[in-house]
# Entry
Amino acid sequence: MTHLTDDDLVLYFYAEGEALPGSLAHLEACVVCRERLDELERTMSAVSASRVPERDESYGRVVWARVQAQLDQPEPSRWRGWLSLEWLTRPRLAYAGGLAVLLVAAFVAGRNWPAPRDSQPAEMVAATASRSTEAEAHRMLLESVTGHLERSAMVLTEVANVRTAGAMDLSEEQSRAGDLVASNRLMRQTATRAGDAGLADVLEQLERVLLEITNSPSPMPQGTLDAIRTRIESDGLLFKVRVLESQVRVRRDADPASPPATKKS
Amino acid sequence: MDGTDPAVVARAQAGDRDAFGILVERHSRAVFRVAYRLTGHEQDAEDVVQETFLHAFNQIGRFEMRSSVATWLYRIAFNCAHDLLRQRPRAARHDSIDDEQGAGMANRLADAAPGPDRQFESAEIDRRVKDGLSGLSEQERAAFILRHFEGQSIDEIGQALGLQASATKHSIFRAVQKMRRAVEPLLDGQT
# Structure
């Protein structure tokens, strides 16, 4: 008796066996090949049991929102002029290597946030930008980056400080985290392309946690919340985000173009 | 209104952006699963998902519906993952995978549903499968993922990867052999 080959068994296993009319008959008659098929099935069942991070029903809407944000971005050529402005190359902007190229992403961040607390509405920012002086553009850049980091820190703080004995409704925080993911991703990608590994690293850590918060079930089970909180604390993420935010804020406040009214104490 | 994929594609091709949104919402999770298996990294998978749909948006006018929408999207996702992995140094990829596995393990332990032994076993299977997948060539990996995890037929995989049926089959055969070598030692230890 000629046994089935390994490839025959694979085809049979994947229900491509119609092409092998003799396989079924052989398997019914041959104990050896049946055992080999059992072994293959057992191994492939274990492979099937390996897990992929869960994405719930709302995931498609989140992805579409992110894609739309990208599609709505102005053409790169509109920003090229901005990126070559003299103010971006001033020596006093020592941190500018990473931040300057965040301009596009920062505007997306400001635009996607539903109700900016202290910053200007996105349309106003965009309209102002088109006629702004270099200094004004610089200030808006700093405002946007600061705003993104500030909002991220707020979400992290709120999640880190939740104390509960059971599942907790954090849908508002999850929604805000979701809003921040797309802009954070753009900033991270831009920082990576700009070669700012330190900034990209912090933004990657931040993005992971924002994604975890966004994609967790609602209400959030206590175990999930504890795991996220542990991640925030063990990575020192909140501290890193705040340090980054304060560095940008110091430069913003030191900028002569910053009107006193916009400065925070 | 006809909500089948071909009908929605036709609307999207006529400039209906909301129709394209329907396709995104409908296929995002499957594309994410494939992207995650291809890259072994959650963050990379998210990037691949986003890039896939951006490319799809730009290319939808040229999509002739000779294959299913899912097959077309898998093909784009495969190319996006290929580009992403090519840009990233191999060592960095492995570091990322390890980090994520550690975090995944912590999350699973925190959930405390099954017992620790079972959780460890599951985590070990996850690790072996990830290692096995990372040991496949890109073509083998893509073919195996689409066949084994997404249930695509040989013909559909061939369309997605631009391969003849025989080449698709051989990619799957080789992939299964390698996956068995990666996973079976663990299963043998349990018997």
Summary: The two ends of chain B are 55 Å apart (CA to CA). Chain B touches chain A through 50 residues (CB under 8 Å).
